[in-house]
Amino acid sequence: MGLELYKSYDKTIDWLRMIASSSVRTKIFESLNDGEKDLSQLRDELDLGGPSILHAIKELEIGSLVKRTDYGDYALTNIGKVQAILLTDLIKTIAVLSEHKNFWLTHDISGIPEELLKETGALNGCKIIRSTPTDMFKPFADFVRVLNESKKVKAILPIFHEDFPEVIEELLKKQVSIRLITNDEILNKAMENNDNLFREVSERKNCGIWLNNDIGLIFTVTDKSVAIYLPTTDGRYDYFDELVGGAKESIVWGDSLFDYYLENSKKVKL
Question: What is the pTM (predicted TM-score) of this model?
Answer without folding.
Answer: 0.85
